[in-house]
Amino acid sequence: MKRYALWLLAILAILTAALSGLHFLSPSASLVTGIFIAGLSDPGPPPIAQGVITEEDWPHFEAASIKLTKVLQTKFPTGSKAEVLKSTLTDQHFRPVDPPPSDCIPPDQPAPAGVVSYQCLTARQEDERKRTLVYKWGGSFCVSTISIVWSSDETNALTHIQGDYHGRCL
């Protein structure tokens, strides 16, 4: 068994070295290498969406989001603790949504023309951002994303949960 593992490791090392060498010979080979590596490292959907979100759901994001929301509502019914939801999702590699940059433009001010800028979030949007966790997978040309947003009451019990699945390609 050890011998097979060593052979597999050696083959992977040779393949990696060959692909790395191509990078220096051709810019297009660099792109192919990136696509190959991204394909190998694609983790697929998170455990909570396994069997719920499939390849057939790709262009049917709204229907897939409804399926995902139903699963979430079953696993985390109203009254469940929001901390259990957050812990479960974090363990499955969901991450918080990044805040906008500190130099963002306030929501009530127009963005300057010809300058790349970010609009600041309203108080409501900022509150929702803090109650949202995101998981992304894919990588070659297309990326799939699951966003889960929830609401809770003053005792931190869930009052609402919703899943959103969408994707985009370059």
Polypeptide structure, described:
There is one protein chain. By secondary structure, the protein is an alpha+beta fold. The chain has two domains: 1-41; 42-169, no CATH class. It is built from five helices and four strands. It has a four-stranded antiparallel beta sheet with strand order 1-2-3-4. A hairpin with a 5-residue loop joins strand 3 (142-152) and strand 4 (158-169). The protein is globular. It starts with a helix and ends with a strand.
In short:
With 170 residues, this protein is an alpha+beta fold.
**Helix proportion:** 40-55%
Taken together, the total number of domains comes to: 2
Radius of gyration: 21 Å
Please, what is the average pLDDT?
84
Percentage of β-strand residues = 15-25%
